[in-house]
Write a structure and sequence with these properties.
The protein has 576 residues and is mainly beta. It is 6% helix and 28% strand. The chain has helices at 36-40, 447-464, 486-495, and strands at 9-15, 20-25, 30-34, 47-48, 55-58, 63-65, 87-90, 100-103, 160-164, 170-174, 184-185, 199-200, 205-207, 218-220, 229-232, 235-241, 244-247, 280-282, 291-294, 299-302, 311-313, 335-338, 344-347, 359-360, 367-370, 375-377, 392-398, 401-406, 409-414, 429-434, 444-446, 466-467, 480-485, 521-528, 547-548, 553-558, 569-575. The strands form 14 sheets. A 4-stranded mixed β-sheet has the order 18-19-20-21, with no helix packed on it. The protein starts with 8 loop residues before the first strand and ends with a strand.
């Protein structure tokens, strides 16, 4: 090349996607060459082999056999020597006698054996004898638990005990040296000498501690594992059976299990899991059957040991509040109902419609009909259809009984069986509360409140019951008998007053005064002028006798006309 500036190539890349080769020169110039056409014309030749050692060929080309031996083309001279006495090399390194390695005699030592490499399964039975074990080779840590039993221990003679001395040396000792013992074989005083002996001691026993709590025959420090039954006083108390802890399982304790303090359960409780006829009862302070579950009838009772329904409440009251879908407020005259979800709800009685049907009868015995419906004839006789034996002829107290005599037969009811409600006046509500002063507030709601107020107003009531009728003039200018209708005079004046107040105004008085009927009054004469009227004759039927009948008609007799207008008869009316 001529006239080159000897620049270095600073970047060189081939874009696989486009096939463009890019070269960037030292001075920043860039050259590109498009190889896409060349790459598209590649013949994608394939290499293959027949399987012969080193043979390879290319499609549409030649084939070669490659040397696949090592550098010197000699097979068998690759092992140079053993590094120590563990292995021994044999052979001369030729193809006919290649090098081999083998384990030397006594070549395997502890150094060549990794931990846990040799297991009991790899040791031939009887291969290791006492001569193969060095002194102190077998230690306690190398003996598995339960590996040595009595058959593996050489006997020290009869009546010998294997002990350890003060230095820890194991040695045999005479059994007679241990005759002073605390435990005895059951039935005698000999020391136990077998693992299966039944033994006892007359002292208290501590387990896991060095002292015994006073009054305890057995004092255990730590957990106790009990895999079967625990007996108390010869009776089965507790039995651990499978996943159940059974208490008094065999009913050895005839009265059952008594717990005299708090009994707490932090999980669910099931009574009568087996579904047999065992009742359940909860007793209250004064109620023996606060809650009673009758297993035989599947009923629950409150206040009764014999519930007659799924829930039977006897005595007391039942209260519902904030239950289900709506609150139960206890509003007077409301009803309880059950909604579609089964919840108890309160229902306004006025929201329930009625058809207001009318019952009627023709007067025939037992006949009754309902409007818009049918009619029936009811049997109106009693059970024996006899109308002659229903008369009660006597009713009274006979000794401690209430005796009722009916059709000649005495029926006695013990007075002690007849309960009373023992209510006082403050416990009896008025059917309709009374508003005395018209302020829309109930002033009286109980009988007691009325009685107390009545006691205060009795004097005023008495005074109000006595009044004078209106004044009237009686013609006494002539002597003889006269009758005066006092009640008619009273009605004439009170019923048609001459003047009344507030006429035409907001407080206009009524047209007439309130009056009483003739038979609602008593009539009296408290004074009559004896110089004018006969006040001494008292014979019934005598026209001279002064008298008043029940309807207020007064009979008088004028003896002498009055000398002036000051002669009086005082008449008083009293409300019955």
């Amino acid at each position: 090349l001529d006239n080159t500036d000897n620049q270095a190539i600073t970047a060189f890349s081939l874009d696989d996607a486009t096939g463009v080769l890019t070269l960037t020169l030292e001075d920043g110039g860039t050259q590109t060459v498009n190889f896409s056409a060349i790459l598209a014309a590649a013949d994608n030749q394939t290499l293959s082999t027949t399987g012969a050692a080193g043979y390879i060929e290319i499609a549409d080309g030649n084939n070669v056999t490659i040397n696949v031996n090592d550098a010197d083309a000699v097979i068998g001279n690759e092992v140079t020597n053993a590094t120590d006495g563990t292995l021994t090399r044999s052979g001369d390194g030729t193809s006919g006698n290649p090098y081999t390695l083998d384990v030397s005699v006594n070549g395997i030592t502890n150094a060549e054996i990794i931990d846990n490499a040799i297991t009991t399964g790899k040791i031939q039975a009887g291969a290791v004898g006492t001569s193969d074990l060095s002194d102190s080779a077998v230690t306690n840590i190398k003996i598995a638990n339960n590996a040595v039993d009595t058959d593996n221990i050489i006997s020290g003679g009869n009546d010998k005990i294997l002990t350890t001395g003060g230095t820890g040396t194991v040695e045999w000792a005479d059994k007679s040296d241990f005759e002073d013992h605390d435990w005895y074989e059951v039935g005698g005083t000999a020391a136990p000498n077998a693992i299966t002996d039944n033994i006892f001691t007359q002292g208290n026993v501590a387990v896991g501690k060095t002292s015994v709590t006073a009054g305890r025959a057995l004092d255990v420090e730590g957990d106790i594992e009990l895999n079967d039954r625990l007996y108390m006083n010869g009776k089965e108390a507790i039995w651990a059976q499978g996943d159940w802890l059974r208490i008094n399982n065999s009913s050895d304790f005839a009265n059952g299990v008594l717990i005299s303090s708090l009994f707490r359960v932090d999980n669910h409780v099931v009574f009568n899991e087996q579904g047999v006829n065992y009742d359940f009862r909860v007793e209250g302070d004064t109620e023996n059957n606060l809650l009673f579950v009758d297993a035989s009838t599947d009923n629950v009772g409150i206040g009764t040991p014999a519930p007659a329904a799924r829930l039977d409440v006897v005595g007391g009251t039942v209260k519902f509040s904030n239950y289900g879908g709506g609150a139960v407020t206890g509003t007077l005259d409301n009803l309880l109902g059950v909604d579609a979800d089964g919840d108890v709800i309160e229902v306004d009685a006025s929201s329930i419609g009625t058809d207001s049907q009318t019952l009627s009868t023709t007067g025939a015995a037992g006949y009754v009909a309902i409007s818009g419906g049918n009619d029936v004839t009811i049997n109106v006789n009693d059970a024996d259809a006899s109308l002659s034996n229903e008369t009660i002829t006597a009713f009274g107290v006979n000794g401690t009984n209430l005796r009722i005599t009916e059709a000649g037969v005495n029926h006695d009811v013990p007075l002690a069986s007849i309960g009373t409600d023992n209510q006082n006046a403050s416990e009896v509500n008025l059917a309709t509360p009374i508003d005395i002063d018209g302020d829309n507030t109930d002033d009286y709601t109980t009988v007691e409140e009325v009685i107390q107020d009545v006691a205060e107003v009795i004097p005023a009531i008495k005074a109000a019951k006595i009044f004078y009728p209106p004044s009237i003039a009686i013609d006494a200018s002539t002597t003889g008998q006269q009758t005066v209708d006092l009640y008619a005079q009273y009605i004439a004046q009170y019923g048609s007053p001459l003047v009344r107040s507030g006429v035409g105004g907001a407080n206009e008085a009524p047209m007439s005064l309130p009056t009483y009927a003739a038979d609602e009054l008593y009539y009296y004469v408290t004074y009559a002028d004896p110089t004018v009227f006969d006040t001494t004759t008292t014979t019934v039927g005598d026209p001279r006798t002064m008298s008043i009948d029940a309807n207020g008609e007064l009979n008088i007799y004028v003896d002498a006309p009055p000398s002036d207008y000051n002669s009086l008869i005082n008449v008083v009316f009293v409300v019955k």
